[in-house]
Design brief:
The protein is of the alpha/beta class. The protein has helices at 19-27, 31-45, 58-63, 70-78, 85-96, 109-118, 120-124, 132-135, 142-152, 166-174, 185-194, and strands spanning 4-7, 14-15, 82-83, 100-105, 128-131, 159-163, 178-181. Helix 1 (19-27) packs across helix 2 (31-45). The longest helix has 15 residues, at 31-45.
Length: 199
């Protein structure tokens, strides 16, 4: 029996244009250069809350003679994201049916803090939200999933998990979790119906 639904956060509850595209439009920095910095910065900060992510961007901005503060850049980055209200409604309905709903995200400290302050309705409508920098695992590590199961006290076949990363889905499936690649809201509902959950 399904007891919990677990969602990725970005690309599901929150949508935005690609950061690299937005940086190119605002600062005229080529996307391939910002993508390199983005990947490196996320790799380190997702597991280390002591490291400020802006430190990775300073040299790139200097290269293009752009003066921008940490607050300005992070505000530009995070404010480009918007809430998908359909998922707030869905989460409410799932919980009304007695299911637990969780967020499972690879996010870093500064972004998480922004979300908790500016998108309170997400956290008010889920049972808990787990972030890599807080739990000590990223979703490319199978221990992230075994740790999740332990924290929410369910067996692998008692949860449905949605993520927009094929790699994450395959790792979760290898542990017996009912994992599905997230596509859009309608396909999410279809998966729930297929698992005898109608909202």
């Amino acid at each position: 029996m399904i007891k919990a639904i677990v969602f990725d956060l970005n690309g599901v509850f929150l949508q935005s244009d690609y950061l690299t595209k937005r940086i190119e439009e605002k600062y005229s920095i080529p996307s391939d250069e910002s993508l390199t910095v983005l990947k490196e910065s996320l790799k380190d900060t997702r597991l280390n809350p002591e490291v400020r992510i802006f430190e990775y961007w300073v040299d790139l901005f200097k290269k293009y003679n752009i003066e921008v503060t940490e607050d300005e850049f992070l505000s530009f980055w995070f404010s480009g994201e918007s809430l998908v209200n359909k998922f707030i409604f869905l989460s409410k309905k799932l919980r009304e049916k007695g299911l637990s709903v969780y967020i499972f995200s690879n996010n870093f400290k500064e972004r998480t803090e922004y979300y908790r302050k500016n998108f309170k309705e997400i956290f008010e409508n889920v049972d808990n939200a787990f972030f890599s920098w807080e739990i000590g695992y990223v979703k490319s590590d199978s221990k992230a999933y075994t740790n999740l199961l332990s924290m929410i006290k369910v067996k692998p076949d008692e949860i449905i998990y949605f993520d927009d990363s094929e790699e994450n889905i395959q790792i979760a499936k290898s542990l017996g979790i009912r994992a599905y690649l997230y596509k859009d809201f309608d396909s999410t509902n279809k998966v729930l119906v297929e698992n005898k959950i109608e909202v």
